[in-house]
Amino acid sequence: MNYLAITLLLIILSRIYITIAKKYGILDIPNHRSSHQKVTIRGGGILFFLSQICFFIGSDFAYWPFFLGLTLLAVISFLDDIITLKALIRFLVQFIAVALLLFYIDLDIAIFFTAILMVGAIAFLNAFNFMDGINGITGVYSIVVLLVYLYINTIKETFVINEVITYTLISVVIFGYYNFRKRALFFAGDVGSITMAFILLFLSLRFLDTYNSIVFLGFFSVYGADTLLTILKRIRLREKISEPHRHHIYQKLVDVYEWSHMKVAIVYGLLQLISSFIIVNVMDAAYNLQLVVLVCILLIMAILYVSVDTYAKRKVRV
C-alpha cells in the first residue's frame, strides 16, 4: 500500500472516528488538573494503532509479537478512555505486551537486566501517557523522535522495516491537524499516548539490539527529565504518585508562565531535536564518549527543569 493511499485512508478513518465519538459520547470532561476548559473528543490517537494495522497487513504480518502487544494495549487503553478501568488490569496488559516484545527481540542480556528493562519499559509507557496533557505536545514530540529514528534507519544502519516509522509519521501528522491548535478537535487519549509509547519502545529496543548502546535514552531526554524529576519532587512533597497534579514543567509553562499549548509543544520538540542531533553525531564515536555526552545532555535537561520550576515558585509568590 503506497503512502498516498495510507494517507487518504487514515484521513477518512479520522472523520469516521469523530462521527462515532460524538454519537457515543467518547469525550474528555475537564477537571481541576486539565489544561483545557471545554469538552473535547478523546481517543483520536487511535489513528496511531490504525497505521500499524495497515503496516501489519501490508508487510505480510511482520513483527507479529509487536503487533499483538500493540493490539492488546490499544484495546485496553481505548476501553479505559470510555470506562475507567482498574490500574491492576492496565498494568497486567502492559506487562503482557512488554513481555511479548522482549521475548520477540530477545536481547542478549542477563535475566536480572531483563527484569530491570521490563520495569523500565512499563514505566516508559505510563510516563509517556502522563506527558500527554496539552494540545500538540504528543504529536510534536513523537514526530521528532520518529524522524530521528527514520534518519538513523535510512542513513546509518537499518534496524526496522521503514514503513513502521513512515506509516506512524503519517498518522501523527493527520492527528496533529486535529490536535495542534488552540481549540483541539480531539485528544489522543490513553489509546493514543500508550500505543505511541509502545511503538517508540519497539523502535528503541530494535535500536538497542542493533547498536548495543543505551544512547537512545537521549532521544527521550526532555520527557525523561520532566517525568523523573516531577516524580522525585512529588515524593519529596509526600504526595501520592497516583493522584492528579500540576507539577510537570509543561504544566507550569502553561499555568504560571502563560505560554500557549502550541508554544510549549514546539519548545519541547526543539529541545529534543537538538539533544537527538548531538546524540546521532556521536553514535560512531567511542562508547565512553557516547555515555559522557548522554550524561551531559541529561544533566542539562535537569538544570533546565530546576531553573524553570524555581522561577515558577517565585513568580507564584509574587
Q: What does the secondary structure layout of this molecule look like, with pairings?
A:
Blueprint: H1 3-24, E1 27-28, E2 40-41, H2 46-58, H3 64-82, H4 87-105, H5 111-130, H6 137-155, H7 162-179, H8 189-211, H9 221-236, H10 249-255, H11 261-280, H12 287-317
Antiparallel strand pairs: 1-2
Helix pairs in contact: 1-2, 1-7, 2-3, 2-7, 2-8, 3-4, 3-8, 4-5, 4-8, 5-8, 6-7, 6-8, 6-11, 9-12
Structure characterization notes:
This protein has 318 residues and is mainly α. Helices cover 71% and strands 1% of the residues. It contains twelve helices and two strands, in the order H-E-E-H-H-H-H-H-H-H-H-H-H-H. The chain has helices at 3-24, 46-58, 64-82, 87-105, 111-130, 137-155, 162-179, 189-211, 221-236, 249-255, 261-280, 287-317; strands at residues 27-28, 40-41. It has a two-stranded antiparallel ribbon with strand order 1-2. The longest helix is centred in the last third of the chain and has 31 residues, at 287-317. The termini are far apart.
Q: Short description, anyone?
A:
The chain is mainly α. It has helices at residues 3-24, 46-58, 64-82, 87-105, 111-130, 137-155, 162-179, 189-211, 221-236, 249-255, 261-280, 287-317, and strands spanning 27-28, 40-41.
Descriptive key words:
318 residues, mainly alpha, globular, two-stranded antiparallel sheet, 12 helices
- The helix tally amounts to 12
Radius of gyration: 19 Å
Unreliable sequence segments: none
Strand order of the largest sheet: 1-2
Whole-number mean pLDDT: 93
Report the strand count: 2
Roughly how much helix do the residues carry, as a percent range? over 70%
- What percent of residues are in strands? under 5%
Q: Main sheet, how many strands, which sense, barrel?
A: 2 strands, antiparallel
Cα separation of the termini: 58 Å
Shape: globular
Structural class: mainly alpha
**Helix/strand order:** HEEHHHHHHHHHHH
